Each structure stands twice: as C-alpha cells, then as structure tokens.
Amino acid sequence: MSFEAVIGLEVHAQLLTRSKLFCGCATAFGASPNVHTCEVCLGMPGALPVLNREAVTLAVRAALALDCTVHERSQWARKNYFYPDLPKGYQISQFDRPLATHGHLDLEVEGSARTIDILRIHMEEDAGKNVHDDVLAGSRSYVDFNRGGVPLIEIVGAPQIRSGAEAAAYMRELRRTLRFLDVCDGNLEEGSLRCDANVSIRKVGATTLGTRTELKNINSFRFVAAAIDFEIHRQIAVVEAGDAVVQETRLWDAQAKVTRAMRSKEEAHDYRYFPDPDLPDLVLTAAAIHSARATLPELPAAKKERFVDALGLTAYDAALLTEEPELCRFFEAAVAGHKNAKGIANWILNELLREARGQPLAALKLTPESLAELVRLIDDGTISGKIAKDLFAELVTAGGAPAALVKERGLAQLVDTAGIEATVDAVLAANAGSVAAYRAGKTNILGFLVGQVMKASGGKANPKIVNEVLRRRLG
Amino acid sequence: MTTPKPPVQAEVLRIAALARLVLSDAEAEAMTPELAEILAHVAKLEEVDVTGVEATAHAVGFATPLRDDVSRPGLDLERALANAPERIGDGFGVPKILE
Amino acid sequence: MTALCDLSLTALSRALARGEHESSAATEACLARAADTKGLGAYLLIDAEGARRQAAAADLRCRAGQRLGPLDGVPLALKDIFLTAGLKTTCGSRILEDFVAPYDATVVRRLKDAGAVVLGKLSMDEFAMGSSNEHCAFGPAKNPWDPTRVPGGSSGGSAVAVASGSAFAALGTDTGGSIRQPAALCGVVGLKPTYGRVSRYGVIAFASSLDQVGPITKDVSDCALLLETIAGHDPKDSTSAPVLAASATEGLEAGVKGLKLGVPKEYFVAGIDPEVRTAVERAIATYAGLGADIVEVSLPHTEYAIATYYLIATAEASSNLARYDGVRFGLRRDPGRGVRDMYLQTRARGFGPEVKRRIVLGTYVLSAGYYEAYYDRAQKVRTLIRRDFAAAFAKADLLVTPTSPTPAFRLGARLADPLQMYLADIFTVGCNLAGIPGLSLPCGFANDGMPIGLQLLGPAWSEATLTRAGRAYEREHDWSRRRPPLARP
C-alpha cells in the first residue's frame, strides 16, 4: 500500500518592532523575568489595548510580499482559553476577518519550482512563557510575561506540502523573504519564527484527508524535515498496523528525534472567538495599501534574477548572495562603489565569508566601500592579488581605507620596466642552473623564476611585466 | 436558524468547566432551570428578521487608533509582582506545568 | 442650618473659591456623615488619611490663590470598580478582596489632577452585575430613604453616598442602567455619557462594548460640572472618541423652549408602576408647559432589548472575567492537584452566584454550536435597536421615559428570580446598546416616600442638551433638593 502525506504549515513570525503589539513595553529578547511588563501585557484589571502602527506596517508588508489580498477592514477577535502564560484568559487575534488572504509562496525544491498557497495572514499577540526551572522553582513552574504581547503574524499555508523536504524548503523561502523585508529576524531557536505542522497521510489517489496531528516545538531549521518525516512514517506505521491515527498535538523531541503526544491532555478546543469589544476594526485605506505595495523592497528571488541577468553572476553565486540579507546588502553596497560585480562577489564569497568565521558582517571592520576600493585597486593594476589578499586580512580586523594604505606603505605594484629588468637580471645571475635548464627545454621552470623575481621585489612587481621581461631575457 | 434546546444539568457543568468554574451540586441544580428560563426569554430574538442586517460589535463608528512604536518603561517590577499570590524569583509561581 | 455636606457640589465649589469654606472642613463633614450612615453600607473603603492629606493640599492651593478649578478641594467618592493606585480595588468581589491597584484609572487621574479629594471606594454589585447592590460580596448597600429597600445597582453605593451626603458626588459605571437606575431609586441625578466620551482605562470591565463611566450627583448642575472634568479623549482607550463635544456646563440654563421631546410609546405599557407612570406623565406636562414640543415616537424593537442586552453583556463578561485566574493577582485556591484544579477552585471560591450565572450564560452563548443562534443574532438585533433610536432622533431632539418601571423594592424581593430582576432593566439597556447618553433625574416620590426617576435620552454627543433639559425641569421642582431622613443631622 502506498501513502502520500498532506502537510499544512502554520508559521508564527515575530514582527521586528521596538514595542509590543498593544502596549509600550519593549520586545527585547533575553531580559530577566517580567522586566518588560505593564498592566496591559499582564492583563491587570481595567487595562486596555492600543494597536502599534509599526506592527501593522510590517504585517501589511509581509502580506503584500506574499502576494496576498490585504483587506481594507479587518477585525480583532478574542480567542478564549485558560493557560498560565495567557494573562487575560484570551489572546487578541484575528478570526473571521483577517488582515490578508489568498497569497502564495514560490519555492524551489530539488531543482523544480513549486507554489504553495497562503490561505491567510493574521496578526496576534504572543503569550508569555511558562518556565520549568527545577533549581529555582522546584516542583513548581513560574511565568515570565516579557514575551507576552509581542506582535506576531500567523501565516497559514495551504495543505499542499507533500514531504519534509518540501516543508523545509517552504520554511527557508519564507524565512528568507521575511528577513529581506525586515519584518522578522527569522530565528527559530529564539522562537521569533515558529513552525507548527498539520500532518496527515492518505492512500495515494485518495481525495479525502486523513486524521491529522498537529506537530509543535520544531525549534531549529535542522529539524523541520526530520520532524515531519518522522511523523509521516509514524502515521504510516500506525495505519499499516491496522490502527487509526489519533487527532492530537504532538511535540518534536529533538534529543530523541521522535514526536510524542503532549503530556497535558487538552480538552476539545472551543475557543469561543468573538470580536474584541476593546478594539474597533483595523481600517487601511486603498491608497495606503497601494503605497505599501509600491514601496516594497526587492525580494530575494527578484534580486537573484537581476544578479544573473544584469550583473553577470553565475546562478550559484547569485543564490548564495541572496540567502542572507546582510550579505546581500554588503554585496550591493560594494557594487555601488565599484562596478565589477563578479570580482566583488568572488571576494565576498571566497575571502569575506572565510574571514568572518560566522560573525555578523557588521562586527567586521571591513566596509562594503573599502572592499569596492580594494577591488578597484586590483582592477586598475595598482596592486597585485597577493598584496590585495594581505591588505584584505588587515582591513577585516583593523579597518582603514585601502587606497590610502597602499600609498602610505608603498604597496603599489612596480610597473617600471627598467627596475624590474634589474631585478630579473639579478635573479637570473643567482640562478644560473635554472637558466641553463630552461634553455635546455625545461620551460616549466619559468614559474620558479617568476616566483623568485616576485620575492625579490617584495611581491610588488607586476607579474605580467615580470613574465614578459623573463621571456625576453631567456628567449 | 432555530434556538437550540435549553441545556440540561450535565451541559451546564460542561460549560462551567469550560469557563473554569466548578459548581457544587446545589449550584448546578439551581442554575440549570434559571438558565433555561433566561434562554427561553432570549428565544424571543427568533421572531426578529435579521436577514441582511450587519452585526454591531462596537458602539463606536471609527477605526482603531494606532500608536507610534515607542518603547516605554512599564510597571516597576515590584509593583508588577506585588499582587502575585505566589512569587518564584521574579516570576509568577504556578503549579508545575507538564507539556 | 444645612450641614456642610448637604450642600451641592456646585455650591461647595463656589464657597471654596470665595474662601467661605475649606476643603478640610467639607472632607471632615463627609467623613462624619459616612460614619453616621455606616449602616447604609455605601463605602467599602474609606481612605480618611489620604482624603485629609488631599484636602489640606487643596486648602493650601486655595489660600495661595492657586486653585486648580471648580473641583479643587471637593470631596468625592468612587465606585470600587475604578483602579486607584495604592488603594484596594475589589469590584465588590472576593476574588479581588486584597487587590491593591498598581495604577490609577484615567478618570481617577483626571479627578486628582483637578484637585478633587478622593474619600474612598463605594459598594457595588460584584463586577457591576446586578440592579440592586445585593450581589456585593461584602454585603448589600441600603436605600437611605428606607433601609429595608435596595438602593438599586450596580452603582448602588455611589447613589447612596450622594443621596446621604457622605460624598458631594460619585463616579459610577453604567452597562445596562447601573448609574441611572440607582440614581432614580435613591433620588439623585445620574448620567450615562455617550459611549466613548469618558475613558474606560483602569475601569474594571464588565461588558466592554456597553460599559461607560458617568457621574452620580445631587443635581444636574453638579452633573454637568463633573462630566466636564472626566470626559475627553484618552489615547490609552481605543474606544475613546477623538471628538470635542459641546460643553455641558455652557448654556445649562437656556431652557427647553422649542425642543422636541419624544415619548416612545413602547415604554408606557403594562408592567410599569402606576405611580411611576403618573410622575413621568406629569414631568412631560411640565416640559410642555416650559415650551417643549411633545411628540410620540416609536422604538419598535424595545421588547427585544433585554434579550439582546443579556446575550451581549454576558458573552463579553465571560471573556473579561477570564483574567481572574489566581496567577498574577487576586484570590488563589490551590488544592495541589495542578493548574486546572487551581483555576476551578479559585474561580469557584472567588466569584459569587450572580457572576457565576452570567459567566456560564456568556460562555454558553459563545460556545461552539450556539454562537450564531445567540450571540451573532443578538449583535444583529443590536443594529436594529440602534436604528430605532436613530429614527426616533430624526423626529425628536430627546426622548423622555421612566428610568425604572418601579421605585425601590424590598431587599431580597427579587433575588430568587434572576429573570425578573433582568426584565426591570427594560428602560435603561437600549441606551447602552445604542451607545447614546442617558440622564436620570428625580421627578417625584411615590406615596410610600420612595423617589421616582425620569430618564432623558439623546443622540450621541448630546450631553449638553440632556443636562440643559434636565436643568430646566429641575428648576421647576424641589425633588433634587430633598434629602433622605437619615441624612439630616
């Protein structure tokens, strides 16, 4: 019997705002418990929500980038349930009338193009965090509300994904898009991007959906495919053993690399959604939506295409440069200073990434402007590649202006033929045996002699001229 | 749409539990007929033709206001925790939560 | 001689301005009256020390010629639904019995900024759910005109304090009549402003789309004065309207000549007490005599108002009261069997029977399978009720109705029958459903000495017209100046 999986992803993305969705508390990650709280995000009696404009701007930007219809009127709804990390006993979310619907995400899975529909995007507030710290809390738990009220968008994808690999590709493409939009920092480990997967299986060719499980706690990119594939195989094994899949929430256990049913048995959900009377409808004018669309930044897929078509990069290099917004911005800023995109791309992808050793580029002393200058100095023959590499290492750790450093230290190439001829003559005199060998037909010894001349010039001699002079003298 | 049948006592207990209320037998016994009576009155609304009528969710006609994204200090930590029935470190203590 | 605490707010304010009285003396007079009338149960908390400190500060400002305005030095009290930083705020509930508010409600801040002296916190039905003040977890308040009768609710303590002179005025809240009905039953003035006119920030929510804060005062002039101080846009409340409404204190004495007063025919049907009907009809005649045009209007969906109101109010309340879970504040009962059990026991112990009844009803009507039949339908009927009022206001400037179908009833008389208690809100709930303002003012007394209230309703933002019309009537009678026997020295 052959099965296929039906997977729908619900992705929560934390919006990059300074303050929370409905109050002025900071959204900073990693603070000590409850320092970023107030009466609103603690759900104190009498406190009321006021919507953060920037959160709306970011949500709209994400929705437009995913080609959604952004609605001029959307409605806030209360999702009612009890949990210690949910201060008001309800979450302010959107239900009947979400911010946006009907979008899609285009992705590439193992070389072929796929489109996954986006059913809806709505805004909501995050919950706090239940902490189980045995040292501090012993047999109790405690609640930290710093994260409570942080703005999220939930992006609900259609159940069109068929495998863990597709799910991972979807997550990567979504993350890349949100990061290029400056909407979300995309950090699964810190929880600023969260992926819940609804997974079911059915016989190949069947049109009805099987019983699904909801998979949570996939808190690293490494686990997206593994967790979903595990769950698919688990369900197949259940069905093949003649049992039925139970509708339940399951957690991914990264240590054991399995999914397991949540220990706290939830009762059937009855969230009793209704319009939040504390918040009138969110109204966006058609003009505002239009202008948000018009000012959307260029998306990574479009950038990649342009880097190939207009800048002449290879598809491979263009893909690498459009993976991370920071790297891409560095590249584009450098190209703005010097038009040799290919040369700059090589320096970034070969040298810069190695020197960075995983640090953020902003932590390096090298600026895009100085990289552009460095490549220009190479291109116009002012410095040799060898000098450039030495200089580059220094620019990364200490910074500085390449042209000024070259001048100050006299690093410019020796292009004066007479000077080079003198050096060549001295090298030839000191290596009579090699000269004889060359003349006897061992022409590959030329490289050795070039190296000797370069060494004698302190690396500054122009290798092209050195070659010419050597051939002339030996010829 | 017709109004559903009034709830029996088991249904009242189920709804109460959904609202995290435990009712004593006496409370449930008293509440069931009271709710039935109230719901019977409420059933009057069936007489009203609401075809094509928009729901009123808010008493105001304006759009929700938007505030600037400025982060401000919230409650002083001690004040935030002052009413906590149980404090663990700087957190609100609760019975152990299993996930 | 009239005791100092029997002056109206306006009279006291003038006397303070002229230096004829001091805030400290007025404050002491209120505190003494509160002590004398302790049996009425108006106050849940008296902050004598704080009040004396504020009064002394007001007196210093006054002597220095730096009086902040008409409310500077005036002793007021607050329904215990308003958060008052550093003071207990119980909302009449065990679940908040020891809750010390961490911040001030916007209206409280406005009163403090205006120099008002806050005497304390007033009794109320638990979470404002009730029409008799009998659902207060800390005992009922009693009607000063007859302590065997209810003062009305849910702002019962507020009406009692003002009627008995233990505060010059009070703030209440009104979700379905909770300001107007106790004002009527206690013979004082109560105003429910237009929804959005007064901030709800820091006011413990019962039903957020219906709740509105308003003054309870000795007369209409006091009401206008207090409204001016508490009204206005608040950026912390998303339902607070960015509207500059006409001042209620200007043109207060301009009379009602030419004003069209509508009489909704559906409000004068069976169930209304004959003495109430007579008093209201006389008041209408008074208005006609003052030059107002009386027109009949129709509010055809009136018979559905109670059902609509109780569905919407309980649904919202069931959600608003979910935050009382024993985690961050308030009562906790934890038998040690986990979080779920802690919730169940905390809420079972913390809430009283009426609150539980409404939470269950509200949860029921929102739950899966019932939402469309109940809640969604109620919201649509709410639209029709709003349209009724809009149509009536196309024909009339204001509407004149009774506030309550009966005068104050005996304590305990309606406790056994919740639906009968709900049905008595028939004249007041429409105003909340439509979001419009309503004023209740005394219009006479029943044969047994119980006060009767007249209700004026106006379109949104018409508070100035309401108070002008109220003031015109008040000038013709001494109903507002009568004080209950207990309050006499």
Brief overview, please?
The complex is a heterotrimer of chains A (475), B (99) and C (489). By secondary structure, chain B is α+β, with helices and mostly antiparallel strands.
Question: What does the model show?
Answer:
The complex is a heterotrimer of chains A (about 475), B (about 100) and C (about 500). Chain A has helices at about 55-65, 135, 165-180, 225-240, 285-295, 300-310, 315-320, 325-335, 340-355, 370-380, 385-400, 400-410, 415-430, 430-440, 445-455, 465-475, and strands at about 5-15, 50, 70, 75, 75-80, 90-95, 100-110, 110-125, 130, 140-145, 150-155, 195-205, 215, 250-255, 260, 275, 280-285. By secondary structure, chain A is of the alpha+beta class. A nine-stranded mixed β-sheet of chain A has the order 3-7-8-11-1-12-13-14-15. A three-stranded antiparallel β-sheet of chain A has the order 6-5-16, with no helix packed on it. In chain A, strand 7 and strand 8 (about 110-125) form a beta hairpin. The longest helix of chain A is centred in the middle third of the chain and has 17 residues, at about 165-180. The termini of chain A are far apart. Chain B is α+β, with helices and mostly antiparallel strands and about 100 residues long. Chain B contains three helices and three strands, in the order H-H-E-H-E-E. In chain B, strands 2-3 form a two-stranded antiparallel ribbon. In chain B, a hairpin with a 2-residue loop joins strand 2 and strand 3 (about 90-95). The radius of gyration of chain B is 23 Å and the shape is flat. The two termini of chain B are about 40 Å apart. The mean pLDDT of chain B is about 90. Chain C has a domain at about 5-260 and about 460-485: Amidase signature (AS) domain (Amidase signature (AS) enzymes, Alpha-Beta Complex). Chain C is globular. The termini of chain C are close together. The mean pLDDT of chain C is about 95.
Main attributes?
heterotrimer, B: 99 residues, alpha+beta, Histone, subunit A, 3 strands, 9% strand, flat, C: 489 residues, alpha/beta, Amidase signature (AS) enzymes, 15 helices
Low-confidence segments of chain B, ≥5 residues, pLDDT <50? none
* CATH class category name of the domain at 1-48 in chain B: Mainly Alpha
* Terminus-to-terminus distance of chain B: 40 Å
The largest β sheet of chain C comes out as: 11 strands, mixed
The radius of gyration computed from the alpha-carbon positions of chain B, rounded to a whole number of angstroms, is 23 Å
Secondary structure tally, helices of chain C: 15
Helix proportion of chain B? 25-40%
- Widest beta sheet: strand line-up of chain C: 1-3-2-4-6-5-10-11-9-7-8
What is the helical fraction of chain C, as a range of percent? 25-40%
Name the structural class of chain B: alpha+beta
If classified by CATH, what would the architecture of the domain at 1-48 in chain B be?
Orthogonal Bundle
Distance between termini of chain C?
Answer: 10 Å
